[in-house]
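Hi support team,

I'm filing this because I wasn't sure whether my run with NDP finished correctly. The job status page said complete, but I'd like someone to confirm that the output block is well-formed before I use it downstream. Pasting the exact inputs I used:
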Amino acid sequence: MTAARIDGAAEARRLRQEIARQVTAFPQHDRPGLAVVLVGDDPASGVYVRSKARMTAEVGMNSIEHRLPASTEEAELLILIDQLNRDEAVDGILVQLPLPPSIDPLKVIQAIDPSKDVDGFHPQNAGALATGMSGLVPCTPRGALHLLKTAREDLSGLSAVIVGRSNIVGKPMAHLLLAENCTVTLAHSRSINLPDIVRQADIVVAAVGRPEFIRGSWLKPGAIVIDVGINRISEAGAKDRIVGDVAFAEASNVVSALTPVPGGVGPMTIAYLLQNTLDAARRRRGVIGSAQDEAASSL
Ligand code: NDP
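And here is everything the job wrote out:
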């Protein structure tokens, strides 16, 4: 079997075009605004922030960038967040992680107004997702679910194994798949006999952060695999490569559909950041009641 390649780059492009179309419904002087805060000079974070700003502008939203030095104190950052919370021109606030070690990321996340928390990391939004209430849903799992549904619309009754239990990927993914009526297993570094757990799955979501960790022999024939992992491989004398958490070539011979890395979940994450900003802008203007209703309609 040669698996279908789920094209996240193309799907993200389509979603951004649709977002751009919907942004035109806002008057020119009141377009949605996304504020991105970068603290320090981590090169990878700098690249992410630049591409987020470019795509925000491309869909017609206002991009507001705040670049602060690595020496910024936690209290200064909290003051900036308070200003952004109160700024009517700002619909979404994203603080790029990781932060310098002297700043507590949990304190920062909790300082963001939940209605502007377009990363969906605030405990109020995490709780809303866990309890089936409306809120802002983290971008990466939202994008991963979207891609899964391009391979199979009805996921009801399927067995889903998510490898990785982080607050930003694994746990919210579990809630999204539960809401799709999957039977969900959340595996992690203490799980015993992981290959056997993965072999039961009709759907595998890999969010581990270990290059090509999940092997083809672990996978059930015909399964759908969503690879969230982004791992940079540096080898002497060769250009750096980016690979996922799944051994792509091996998996391609076993499963029915899978996402590549790069070009899979990564582009969808940024597209859903824009979708969350649009949802937040609409909700703040009283246009829609629920970001999750909108998520469902945009899938
Ligand atoms: P974390 O490091 O926060 O979590 C990794 C998870 O993997 C943990 O739950 C950990 O288990 C589990 N794990 C680690 N080693 C093993 C193992 N040997 N067996 C089973 N489970 C293991 O990572 P994130 O969730 O933040 O990210 C995961 C990956 O996704 C990374 O590669 C990251 O770069 C990528 N990513 C990609 C995004 C995108 O846009 N495509 C966005 C966000 C992340 P335990 O809890 O027990 O420690």
